[in-house]
């Protein structure tokens, strides 16, 4: 009997055992290589790094049908010290990366599947209307406005001084953007991206990267006193999102009708480790808030839909590879919004804090990532500190058992030498593992959608090539 005929029997045995014990199984690990993306940007950022540097891929991860995924790096590289006045942030243009994550059966020793990540495209994010950028003068910096800007394409960047100080942080005309989560629309033609600076939830055209909609979020999430320095901003506000801990996660229901965002940490006015979940009806813009209680982790990094009312929440600490320590908490909990108490009216009094905690949605541990990786020979010091991206992919069937594939990605903060590469872990989970009936989002097949995007993107691509210009620090 050859290797190919033995393989299905071995996989069937592995998954039969998993089904009996209802335990999620690690089936593949892949790393995206390369140091530059496909943005076509030339020159360097203010800190000397290339404007097309590749990194931070796992801040947000979304399935886009077939083996196609969308990944969003965050606000860009700021680990290289150059100007404390902007927290070392740069004019890195916000973007999304298109990937193929090919999962194939492995006929050799090791995990049962092989994952091959490939970068296939980079799209820059912009606004057709003008944005506010920092002048840079007081800080000894050039203007925060990208050199690539045109009258109809104003690019979002990660530089922290790109804001209007006379308005609250949720002002959609601010030029700063810190993308932390992404989801694909039902028709596959647009993307929803949430951020930490606002927080914002924007809708972007998938072919051109241009913003087409800004959702109005509750006023209690915003801060009134903005600063380019995070510590100053935190000290200057007693309500609203905490700096760098805004809307870290975003889910979309299987029918594509509702977005479900989650804050990374409690608002400045909230106590008792309660994090706010925010639902947005895409058609009407109606927003509701619910409470999530942290139990083991210091914050939340992602949320992904299991079905229309149940979701997986990524609760974690900041320990592990990249932090110089060992990973402790990287856990995925199932939550259910059925019958949940709406909490938007609960502000900050002691009574409100008790009510918030009492209103927390029920949660059940589904997957302890550290334990599963440890069981597969990966030591805790080699587990990324920032496990942030979650996306369900195509189902697989092994030995007659249907399994759902969950792709998990890390944010390496653009410092692969410290935090490792852009990694993707794939877990197989059954409905029994999830404790729920899974419903995959319905997105057009990539082949049919490609024809539409090709037509829309040809003009945008030609336009963007003209816009790309050298930027030096």
Give your account of this protein's structure:
The protein has helices at 3-21, 230-235, 350-358, 369-375, 416-419, 431-434, 446-467, and strands at 25-32, 60-63, 68-72, 95-105, 113-124, 126-127, 154-155, 179-184, 190-195, 201-205, 211-214, 247-252, 258-263, 274-281, 287-293, 299-305, 310-316, 330-336, 363-368, 387-392, 396-398, 401-410, 422-429. Helices cover 15% and strands 31% of the residues. The chain has seven helices and 23 strands. With 473 residues, it is of the alpha+beta class. The strands form six sheets. Strands 1, 20, 21, 22 and 23 form a five-stranded antiparallel beta sheet that branches. It has one domain. Strand 14 and strand 15 form a beta hairpin.
Topology overview:
Layout (H helix, E strand, L loop, with lengths): L2 H19 L3 E8 L27 E4 L4 E5 L22 E11 L7 E12 L1 E2 L26 E2 L23 E6 L5 E6 L5 E5 L5 E4 L15 H6 L11 E6 L5 E6 L10 E8 L5 E7 L5 E7 L4 E7 L13 E7 L13 H9 L4 E6 H7 L11 E6 L3 E3 L2 E10 L5 H4 L2 E8 L1 H4 L11 H22 L6
Antiparallel strand pairs: 1-23, 2-3, 3-4, 4-5, 6-7, 8-9, 9-10, 10-11, 12-13, 13-14, 14-15, 16-17, 17-18, 18-19, 20-22, 21-22, 22-23
How many H/I helical runs? 7
| Contiguous uncertain segments of 5+ residues | 1-21, 456-473
Measured between the Cα atoms of the first and last residue, the distance is 62 Å
Radius of gyration: 22 Å
Fraction in beta strands: 25-35%
N-to-C SSE series? HEEEEEEEEEEEHEEEEEEEHEHEEEHEHH
Number of strands: 23
Count of all domains: 1
Helix amount: 10-25%
**Main sheet makeup:** 5 strands, antiparallel
Mean pLDDT: 91
> What structural class is derived from the secondary structure elements?
alpha+beta
Globally, the shape reads globular
